[in-house]
Amino acid sequence: MEYSNILAQYAPAMSVEQVAEVVAQAKAAATKNENVDVYKFCLSAIDLTTLTCNDSVESVTEFAKRTTTFAQAYPDVPNVASICVYPAFVETVGLAIDGTPMRITSVGAGFPASQTFLEVKMLEVAMAVENGADEIDIVLNVGKMLTGAYDEAAAEVEVIRSEMGEDVVLKVIIESGALKSPELIRAASLLSMAAGADFVKTSTGKIDVAATPEAAVVMCQAIKDYYEQTGRMVGFKAAGGVKTPQDAALYYTIVEQILGEQWLTTDLFRIGASSAANNLLSAIVGEKVVHF
Question: Is 237 labeled as catalytic in the residue annotation?
């Protein structure tokens, strides 16, 4: 498929000035969402993440088990949406959370740089799914996007999507901090959705510029326009640098204002985070706690 032709079906991206205006409006509106109910929802939307070179079977097992004791410790607070790990630890998480409704997310396809052979990307994703991953987060090839090879970048997503069952959720990370401009962020979002993404995600968290409200505005507008064009609802995930309850409430507000309340479910809104989970929990219970 010539994916680049799809972009001509959509209006151009907002200008930097227009994006800044929408962000300012969202920041002003976000104060009303800095409350316990919103914090509870944001906690329930978290993909609790550990993606470090220090990860081991032992550390990941302990990390995952914290979610299994959460309901008993905090019966009135919803648990996180999933646990996000490298592919080699999918089975480890599965054993740790066996018998619970917790979902398993795996990064894959050459995360975080996406700079390996397509065949390797396909195999890695297929193995993660075979080992029990419910959701897969991959990175759109940023180098191809920056050089205008849009068809190649989107075709990779389509091929990787084919390695999963229809019940597996595919999140495509566009690495908005590397794309920078509203035009490229919008193009990457639209191409990812056209190629089969169930979510578009801001960042890997592995480069200097991670999630920003500006990128979120452009991505959510692309999701809205794609929905109006196709009727398919695609989710939004903010990841990288989302740390405080106020950060979470701001992204919640951006989704609320651009996409509407129908997107405020964990099927369509996620936050990739580690420290944010404890910070949200602390805000909910009214004292400093470290559970995750």
Answer: yes
